[in-house]
Specification:
By secondary structure, this protein is an alpha/beta fold. Helices cover 29% and strands 36% of the residues. Strand 8 and strand 9 form a beta hairpin. The N and C termini lie far apart (47 Å).
């Protein structure tokens, strides 16, 4: 796999590049607008996007790179939540037989993929919700969310649904971040609530979310997608890259 990386946000993009360098499938890592450092012979400056299989960016506004990827007919992974990008460019990417994967981040990528994974375990789903942290002043009231340590319990506010799931965001201060999915379902063992969550340094979690999408890109059909459209393979790639998951189950 040949991957071109744009490190617009620097820290997330840099960490994602390091994660990708740990993959055996990676044969070439191109840096867009940056000079290589270190001695890895796979790292090169990018002169032509058409020489790569996929381009990835941590930019909060990825429009220019999406258009460049489409022109070069290569797949594109963006950290940005890209509903407008999907609507405007999805059909064009499909016609070019390449993939646009948007929302490869903690809130739109990892959190709903955790929920989709738990739903796939079976049972009649009765309730599903997801939650994530974001930088900000902690709340003193709201929806109580029990994230894994070291983030721990937090108050959160409801946000527009993500991938069809009820969603909550909890402001936190500091360098740590977390995401969580809570799925209640009925089966032969009664009513069971499964909770699965992740917590780590914020930049590292975001980088894992971005890199996992790159590693899974071939499993998505041409056109526009979100990571949770293929949650199993997306999470598998994140776990292979070092994502740690905490789980617990409540039975009624």
């Amino acid at each position: 796999m040949r991957v071109a990386v744009e490190q617009a946000g620097l820290e997330v993009g840099r960490r994602a590049a390091r994660i990708l360098l740990g993959e055996r499938e990676l044969t070439r890592l191109g840096l867009i607008g940056a000079k290589p450092s270190g001695k890895d012979p796979r790292v090169h400056p990018v002169s032509d996007l058409a020489e790569y299989d996929v381009v990835v960016t941590d930019a909060p506004d990825a429009l220019d790179l999406v258009e460049a990827a489409l022109e070069a007919a290569v797949s594109c992974v963006v950290w940005e939540d890209g509903a407008e990008l999907e609507a405007e460019y999805g059909e064009s990417f499909a016609e070019a037989n390449v993939t646009l994967l948007t929302g490869a981040n903690l809130a739109a990528g990892l959190a709903p993929s955790l929920a989709a994974h738990e739903i796939a375990l079976g049972g009649v789903v009765m309730d599903t919700s997801i939650a994530w942290t974001e930088p900000g002043t902690p709340l003193r009231r709201g929806e109580a969310i029990s994230f894994p340590d070291p983030v721990g319990p937090r108050w959160a506010t409801e946000r527009p649904s993500v991938h069809g799931f009820t969603a909550y965001a909890a402001p936190v201060e500091g360098d740590w971040a977390a995401a969580l999915a809570r799925v209640t379902s009925a089966g032969t063992d009664g009513v069971v609530t499964r909770v699965v969550g992740v917590a780590d340094l914020a930049a590292h979690l975001e980088a894992l979310a971005l890199a996992a999408a790159v590693m899974a890109i071939d499993l998505y059909s041409p056109g526009a997608h979100r990571p949770a459209d293929a949650s199993e393979i997306y999470l598998a790639k994140a776990l292979d890259a070092g994502l740690g998951v905490a789980t617990y189950t409540l039975t009624e």
